[in-house]
Amino acid sequence: MPRPRSLTNDQIAAAALAxxxxxxxxxxxxxxxxxxLDRRTMALYRYxxxxxxxxxxxxxxxxxxxxxxxxxxxxxxxxxVLALLELMREAVGAHPGVLPLAIRHHRTCRPALRWRERLxxxxxxxxxxxxARAAALHALxxxxxxxxxxxxxxxxxxxxxxxxxxxxAALATRDTTPAGPAxxxxxxxxxxxxxxxxxxx
Length: 201
Prior knowledge:
Elements: H1 9-23, H2 30-36, H3 41-44, H4 51-67, H5 77-94, H6 99-104, H7 110-125, H8 130-152, H9 165-175, H10 179-193
Helix pairs in contact: 1-2, 1-4, 4-5, 4-7, 5-7, 5-8, 5-10, 7-8, 8-10
């Protein structure tokens, strides 16, 4: 008769997330998660196969609760898309170290899959056909990943205005704009560029 489990997936994920939040993603290992749980490293393998499974559990925990919040009440497909993008930003903002894991496991972790499915539902409701819908999804996901990486990577010295005047001015404007409005403005620009402005709500 199998022994009862003394740890749940949520407990393992919470311990791994605590390691990431406190010490950064490079500190994540089977050993550090086991230590966080006050277990021996080898004991952890009774519950998970390897670090990859732990990473997926972390993504499920960090993103699932936020991304499961309904965006369906938004009045238009465009508003639903914007709400979904902002939910992802909120989820990653609470645990920035999880972003690389969400990217790495985007084809297997269910919260990321559900998020993209809901984006596609909104794009479908907007009247986009298969190829246009796929292109729009790629553009929106790429924008979201890039914007969040830039937001959480920390400040870096900018170019000198003498050598790159337009770029320096653009970066100065971006640096003085709060992160939330800047993210939303960028998302709206992407939607407009995809032709999803007029008739999209």
